[in-house]
Amino acid sequence: MTTTEMIELNQENLNQSGCYCLRSQPNSTGYTNKNAWLRDRFNEGLKYIKVMDNEKLAGFIEYTPIEYSSRVVCGDNYLVIHCLWVHITGKGHASTLIRKCIQDAKEKNKDGVIVITNPNTSWTPSKDIFIKNDFLEVDHAPYGFELLVHKFGDAPDPYFPNDWEERLARFSGLTILRTPQCPFVEVATDNVMKAADKLEIKAEIIDIKNREELMRLSPTPYGIYGVIYKNQLLSFHRLTAHSAMKRLREL
């Protein structure tokens, strides 16, 4: 018989439990940055919950109030799911984690739960599992981004900004905008920098410090990572150094 347990990270158990992603490299810059970022977010209401299957790590969910979210979405009184990942599949763990988030939203008198999906990358959760759990698509943005919401009442729908082209127009040189919300951002940055060095292209890194900057500068709804070159989006997810070099040459 399968035994399922959910473990919520907090200030007391973070050092021992740690985050899910990049856990095989606990001394890496990305992993340590992520744990430091989590420690600063708990008092904002962020939840990071891991699910255990027969005492084995099966997956996790991360979500937070919209006013502190790392996703570029407009709205009030919602929880926003940053990440959902399950590697022991077929046992309902993803739905269990989603339902946990929905229940938390109800208990906090929120108007619902938001998630951003994109079929073109594994860096966002899969849309299908949210449709299965009664989320509805209410908006979309360039590069394949979809905005889904599970609402409890008649509150206004959340929505994406509509100034994506204007955001790209601000950056003509190679620019990396990032936050430490994802531990793989450091690896993604290093790969672009390696490609830029080989092509002798000067790159600028902008570390986004708060939600105001994120909402103003991010080139996509994903928020935590974006690479722009010649006023065009190079990537919003990790590329290999080879792939980054190829794309830089194409622009």
Could you please describe the fold and organization of this structure?
The protein is globular. The protein has two domains: 4-151, 3-Layer(aba) Sandwich (Aminopeptidase), CATH 3.40.630.30; 164-250, Glutaredoxin, CATH 3.40.30.10. A hairpin with a 2-residue loop joins strand 2 and strand 3. By secondary structure, it is of the alpha+beta class. The strands form two sheets. The protein has a seven-stranded mixed sheet. Strands 9-8-10-11 form a four-stranded mixed sheet, with helices on one face. The chain contains eight helices and eleven strands. The protein has helices spanning 14-17, 29-41, 93-107, 127-132, 164-169, 185-198, 211-217, 241-250; strands at 4-8, 47-53, 56-65, 78-86, 112-117, 136-141, 145-151, 174-178, 203-207, 225-229, 232-235. InterPro entries: Acyl_CoA_acyltransferase, GNAT_dom. This is N-acetyltransferase domain-containing protein. Residues 1-170 form the N-acetyltransferase domain.
Task: Give me the CATH fold name of the largest domain.
Answer: Aminopeptidase
Q: Radius of gyration from the CA trace?
A: 18 Å
Q: Tell me the count of domains.
A: 2
Following the backbone from N to C, one meets helices and strands in this order, namely EHHEEEHEHEEHEHEHEEH
Quick structural overview:
With 251 residues, the chain is of the alpha+beta class.
Features:
single chain, 251 residues, alpha+beta, Aminopeptidase, 2 domains, seven-stranded mixed β-sheet, four-stranded mixed β-sheet, 8 helices, globular, Acyl_CoA_acyltransferase, N-acetyltransferase domain-containing protein, GNAT_dom
